[in-house]
Specification:
By secondary structure, the chain is of the alpha+beta class. It is 27% helix and 34% strand. Helix 1 packs across helix 3.
Length: 245
């Protein structure tokens, strides 16, 4: 039986996700009536929970066989390196041989909202270039990335085609940007309905949230980004050097 202040199907799905993670691949899930009785939920609630795990790649339904355990096919490292360079998602993944896809959802100049203004040391409402992109790996949606740049520093970024390539490499090439240091914060969020549609998960699914602010050698902020990642196909790696090594 599951008790939670969250919607019941989310509590069931999270318990099932942990349970499935401990089961061998191709193991069959117990039949629906048994699971409904075990979790004390209706068939509709159970199916909604299982649907989320199917969408996330943890389970597979097969006619005549039932529902069985699968393993998500794609895992990658979302990495920012402090040792050699500040390397964004596109550069890191391309170097590993992955096929990276990018769909630009929004690209415009907007007044800086308070959190973004604080990260970029701007006045609230000062114009920034806002860039929102859906990123995929080998054809599977991976995360939604939101980036903000002071439009006074990077005016041409509002019109640049970012459907391919790296934002960081563009800033280095076009503006000789000194991307020297990055501050990264990782927390957890949940997918809203729009994100759920883009990432092919159920609304309310947990997401990894990676917030990055890149500074130049003098400590001035240049770019603030936050990415909302599917945790079933992502992991976050930090590389840190000590004593210049």
């Amino acid at each position: 039986m599951v008790n939670s202040v969250a919607p019941k199907y989310l509590a069931v799905r999270e318990h099932l996700r942990r349970r499935v993670a401990a089961m061998p691949e191709h193991a069959l899930l117990p039949p629906e009536p048994a699971l409904c009785a075990e979790y004390n939920v209706s068939r509709i609630t159970l199916r909604r929970a299982v649907d989320g795990l199917v969408a996330d790649g943890h389970l597979v339904r097969e006619q005549g066989r039932g529902t069985y355990v699968a393993r998500p096919a794609v895992r990658h490292e979302y990495r920012e390196s402090f040792v050699h360079r500040i390397a964004g998602f596109n550069s890191v993944m391309t170097e590993t041989g992955a096929q990276v896809g990018t769909t630009v959802i929004a690209q415009r100049i907007v007044p800086a909202p308070s959190p973004v203004a604080g990260e970029l040391a701007l006045a609230v409402g000062e114009p920034v270039v806002e860039l929102e992109r859906l990123r995929s790996v080998d054809g599977a949606p991976n995360h939604v990335a939101h980036s903000y740049l002071p439009s006074s520093l990077y005016p041409k970024a509002a019109d640049q085609d970012f459907s391919e390539g790296s934002l960081y490499e563009y800033l280095r090439r076009e503006y000789a940007a000194d991307l020297a240091h990055a501050r990264i914060v990782v927390d957890v969020g949940t997918a809203d309905h729009e994100e759920a549609d883009l990432l092919r998960v159920v609304a309310g699914s947990p997401l990894l949230v990676v917030r990055t602010t890149v500074h130049d050698s003098g400590g001035h902020p240049l770019v603030h980004s936050f990415s909302r990642l599917r945790p079933d196909v992502s992991q976050v790696e930090f590389e840190v050097s000590v004593g210049g090594r």
